[in-house]
Design brief:
- The protein is 33% helix and 23% strand.
- It is of the alpha/beta class.
- It has 2 domains: 163 residues, Stage V sporulation protein AD (Peroxisomal Thiolase, Chain A, domain 1, 3-Layer(aba) Sandwich); 157 residues, Peroxisomal Thiolase, Chain A, domain 1 (3-Layer(aba) Sandwich), CATH 3.40.47.
- The protein has a 6-stranded mixed sheet, sandwiched between helices. It has a 6-stranded mixed sheet with strand order 3-2-8-6-4-5, sandwiched between helices.
């Protein structure tokens, strides 16, 4: 480990991934990236919260099926969501019988799960680990803002919580893409208090982790085909590029943001873009991992972002802390190119 960055000596592989979404996601430009689209926001359940559990369970089922795996083939699962006590996850997986570690990183949860899964596989503590996360627009609105029938108005900086889930399986098998390194983020709080402008709260955290990763690895942004953030949306994406520009670094041509990819700004009323733990998870599992596996992308830096706010403390006037973890995913397993980190060859 150098700085905040872990280098994986065995380069664990993401051997299977799946993304599941709702109607809004199916109507967007990324609909082909989803393994399943659900038209019913209740997912044939009685409540939105039960529906999110079903959504998450569907993502796990598809990821296992695509990898020709069963629950008993998974040594450990990391999972979490945006609901209190991560109930979307716990109620969704309670019948699966997989050893489980609950995690919470808000909308950055998918990178936290991928990082932890890779640590266990790389260390020889697990043969296969599964990471999963989800979000549901209606459930999130009820918890963080107002019930839908309240009819609250959203400002232009607000983002639309994705009804989506992503699941991926990390293994010691030799199959691209590989997880080469990961930077554990620090909490960054710039004093933003507006819960309808989470992009502004999260952009400094993304900047901190990406900048730390580049410093620790001595890589330049141009090494990557894309530097991907989770759900900064229009506002946060602009701020991230401005922060790097202050350092004399232009990442605008490399930067991709899941929050600006998921929906059609011309035909879908999403204001500043998408948000939610399922946004980054579904785009990673449904869009980026397949393109890394095919070799269309050779290297990406994936830094999902999370606003660690609570509606209770936010109403008390507290600011919004944010977190971002950065993961290097590569088509190469480390044998090529030969990259040296502070005198140490990683291969």
């Amino acid at each position: 480990m150098k700085g905040n960055t872990v280098f994986f000596s065995s380069a664990p592989a993401v051997v299977s991934s799946a993304a599941v979404g709702g109607k809004m996601e199916g109507d967007g430009p990324m609909s082909a990236c989803f393994d399943k689209i659900n038209e019913d926001p209740f997912f044939s359940c009685e409540t939105f919260e039960q529906g999110e559990s079903q959504l998450l369970k569907q993502a796990i089922s598809h990821a296992l099926e695509k990898g020709s795996l069963r629950c008993e083939n998974i040594d450990v699962m990391f999972g979490g969501d945006l609901l209190n006590q991560c109930t979307g996850t716990t109620y969704g997986i309670r019948t699966l019988g997989i050893p489980f570690l609950g995690i919470y990183g808000a909308c950055s949860t998918v990178t936290e799960g991928l990082l932890l899964s890779s640590l266990l596989v790389d260390g020889g503590y697990a043969s296969r680990a599964l990471a999963v996360t989800s979000s549901h627009f209606c459930a999130a609105e009820r918890q963080y803002r107002f019930p839908l029938n309240y009819g609250g108005q959203r400002p232009p900086t607000a983002q639309y919580t994705a009804t989506a889930a992503g699941a991926l399986v990390v293994s010691a098998e030799r199959l691209p893409p590989y997880v080469r390194a990961a930077t554990v983020g620090r909490i960054v709080d710039m004093g933003v208090t507006d819960a309808a402008n989470m992009g502004a709260a999260m952009a400094p955290a993304a900047y901190s982790s990406i900048r730390q990763f580049l410093a620790d690895t001595e890589l330049t942004p141009e090494f990557f085909d894309a530097i991907v953030t989770g759900d900064l949306g229009k506002v946060g994406s602009r701020l991230l590029c401005e922060l790097f520009a202050r350092d004399g670094t232009d990442i605008t041509s490399l930067h991709r943001d899941c929050g600006t990819m998921l929906y059609d700004f011309e035909h879908q009323d999403v204001h500043a873009g998408a948000s939610g733990a399922g946004c980054a998870a579904s785009m990673l599992c449904g869009y980026f991992i397949p393109r890394l596996r095919s070799g269309e992308y050779r290297n990406i830096l994936f830094a999902a972002t999370g606003a660690l706010l609570s509606p209770t403390v936010n109403a008390q006037g507290e600011s919004i802390p944010a977190i971002s973890h950065a993961v290097w995913l590569s088509y190469e397993n480390g044998a090529a190119p030969d990259i040296r980190f502070a005198g140490r060859t990683v291969s």
